[in-house]
Design goal:
There is one protein chain. The protein has 275 residues and is mainly beta. The longest helix is centred in the first third of the chain and has 28 residues. The protein is elongated and about 55 Å long.
């Protein structure tokens, strides 16, 4: 009986010794998530601020660029499982830690819609982007920007850059005889609306596009065979902003299409204001 118990105990111990290396090998062979690529990133304050995050990955090491309003901010960090942290120098924005009023700048105490430089001299804040990979492969987390003794925070989400196609019903048809008048331009992913004042002369379209976040931007473009192409240009937060739009006239009297920007690809609609 004692001999049988000894043999059973020895067999159990050997089984454990064999199983442990096997599990360790399986864990060692597990590959980290791949975050390499371009991400459409949304900063979630009192409104959504579209930016971009471009990453390169070597094992668990990450490096890349945070892009906001056409300006690049290098970042680097490490991926641990499904979580990661990126550090670099960038603009100061977000709300003070412990304050629930979204969009308060780290460098000040008043509510604001967007990013703020940490000082009038252009000094940048210490920026940390903390995030994790969701089950669907998207990213989410919180960004911290610290300048001197002040720290601002803002939540964010991101999805991989995908080719944006115009809505299926955005078919070319007879465009209005004249676009002169007031329109509402909606940038869908940014949940941002701009008041547009247009003047049309032949195929040429000019005007302005105005919003609280972007201020007043100039607009220039063309309309031909139901296809509207235009650009808006201006500055926000001290940075030049240029957006390029291309879309088609729809049977319901609106336009819809794609736009390209320093923050990535997005979609837009344009509707005439009701009189």
């Amino acid at each position: 009986m004692k001999l049988s118990r000894s043999i059973a105990t020895l067999a159990f111990s050997l089984g454990c010794l064999v199983a442990i290396p096997h599990d360790a090998t399986a864990q060692a062979q597990a590959k980290p998530s791949s975050l390499a690529g371009t991400w459409n990133m949304s900063l979630i304050g009192d409104h959504v601020i579209p930016v971009a995050l471009v990453l390169e990955q070597n094992g668990t090491a990450l490096q890349g660029t945070f892009i906001m309003m056409g300006k690049d901010y290098p970042v680097a960090g490490e991926l641990t499982g499904t979580k990661f942290a990126l550090k670099g120098k960038g603009p100061a924005f977000g709300r003070p830690a412990g304050d629930h009023a979204a969009g308060v700048a780290a460098g000040g105490a008043t509510p604001a819609a967007g990013p703020h430089r940490a000082s009038p001299t252009g000094a940048l804040a210490d920026m940390t982007i903390n995030g994790s990979v969701n089950a669907n492969g998207d990213l989410a987390g919180e960004m911290l920007s610290k300048f001197e003794e002040r720290t601002g925070t803002i939540k964010w989400t991101a999805e991989r850059l995908r080719e944006r196609k115009a809505p299926a019903d955005a078919v070319a048809s007879s465009a209005p005889a004249a676009m002169t008048g007031k329109w509402t331009l909606t940038i869908v992913e940014a949940q941002l609306q701009l008041a547009v004042d247009l003047t049309q002369a032949g195929s040429k379209v000019t005007g302005t596009a105005t919003s609280d976040h972007l201020g007043t931007m100039t607009l220039e473009g063309t309309l031909a065979n139901g296809v509207l192409k235009f650009t808006t240009a201006g500055s926000a937060g001290g940075q030049d902003v240029r957006l390029e739009y291309s879309g088609k006239y729809k049977a319901d009297g609106t336009f819809a299409g794609d736009l390209t920007s320093p923050m990535g690809a997005m979609t837009w609609t344009l509707a005439s204001m009701k009189k």
